[in-house]
Specification:
Length: 146
Amino acid sequence: MKIKHYLIIASICQLQACANPIGKATNVSEKEVVAKYMETNTTLVNKFDILVGKNKSLLVKHGRRYAKHKGMERTHILPAGTKITLTKIDRIQGDGFVLFNATGIAYPKGELKGVPFTHKWGYGGTSPQAPWEKPGKRLKKILGIE
């Protein structure tokens, strides 16, 4: 009897994995709660850098550089309070966790034209704040997946 239950549970888990494959990105920008979130989170809470490399521009915590940033040049240092516009948020299904990938435009002081960026956040079982999130206003909490 135990083996039968195990096989049933294993089958259900496999079906769920097929429904939400790891790495699948879903645009959640048009969901009402996310659209409202995107409108109300319009400035950086902390200091961040924009790193530019081959066809990508990343928003990363000031001074943080990792191996995956090799070959990328820091083009801007953005202080807390820098205006941003979020243009798209994707929810990325992980292996038992959820990541978010946001694209947007930052408006450094003294520049008329905005600077595009991408920022990925959330990993493992943790839900760190995105650069624009104020305490208690995390997207995972708003969506009820935390």
